[in-house]
Design brief:
The protein is of the alpha+beta class. It contains 3 helices and 6 strands; from the N terminus they run ααββαββββ.
Length: 131
Amino acid sequence: MGNYNLEEAREHFKKDRFATDSGMEVVSISDDEAVTRVVLNDGHKNAYGGIMGGAIFTLADLAFAVLSNNRHNLTVAQQVSINYLSAPKGNELTATAHFIKDGKTTCVIQVDVTDDTGRDVAMFTGVGFKL
């Protein structure tokens, strides 16, 4: 795909069914940043009533995919890690992805996840391999 506008990105990533079926959406896209968002509901909660780590991870992974594939289609995740920083307190999560490095065959992207109260929820780092 590469260098798509917001509507093209939204249309393309509708195919990421796990994320979109969970209410996640692409908010913005540029050459250097991608933002995704989800409004939280009971379907995102774990057995203890908190937001499931997998929901946070999926939102960050979607932002990683949108940004990495905007710069180079097709890029796949080679290695990712996430640090959960705080439990979300708000009703919405936002993931903001930006490049740390964009090399010839790989890229490194950091995704910061925050809630709508401004709380830092997670930091995701992904290494993408360009096919």
